[in-house]
Please model this.
Amino acid sequence: MAFSLETIRLFLLDMDGTFYLEDTLLPGALMFLDLCRERGAAFSFLTNNSSRGKEDYLNKLRRIGVSGITEQQIFTSGDATLIYLEERQIGRDLLLIGTSSLERQFAAAGYETASSTPEAVVLGFDTTLTYEKLTKLCNAVRAGLPYIATHPDLNCPVAGGYIPDIGATIAYVEAATGRRPDAVIGKPNRFILQAAARRFGCQPEEICMVGDRLYTDIALGRNGCKTVLVLCGESGREDLPGAVHQPDLVCQDLLELCQVWQKSE
Ligand SMILES: [Mg+2]
Model:
């Protein structure tokens, strides 16, 4: 193995395709959380999706039989964006394009989300997007304000297919204004890893991302964290040769990761 699991202080867990598949827990899911608790490693669920609030994820986890999870253990690209704004002391007056749950999250953190004199533009995954919002967004971007997007995904998988994600909006704004965001926070970019390191008080090399997608979860490893690919989601072994970044460890699922960890003491 390329690294010792004992050196990891924080596991970042992808959800869909890693921990559960729709409404079914994947093998070893609960055992992995127990093992983290037993070994004194922190864990947090990590999602790029900034359209939903933490309550949605907590409710889903409870519904499928996962107990003892707190809001602190759900880390979204929205959280990471707030840490990014805080660190860079970008002003409190924003034009935020996002769902009402993202607006509430930013308002609770002390931001004005619909300022008439915004100091920056934050774009989230907005499933309530309107032409009016797009126009406002394009005007603010054209005016040259700092422009931050919560994550890069082009599509969001849903039952039966996909819905267009924030990346499609980023492309729309670029077509209209010629500008791309100054920073895109979520996986596979370094900002979300830096934000997680700050939030959980550890170094990037003490963090391990566990996920099923090579180009987001595993590509996060190029920024200095360790990565474990699980094969129970969208990637198979045959996808590995074409990957931009190779995982430090490949396991069938979280159950096999538990077994590797238990053997490594
Ligand atoms: Mg996944």
Notes: The chain has a mean pLDDT of 96. The radius of gyration is 18 Å. The first strand starts at residue 10 and ends at 13.
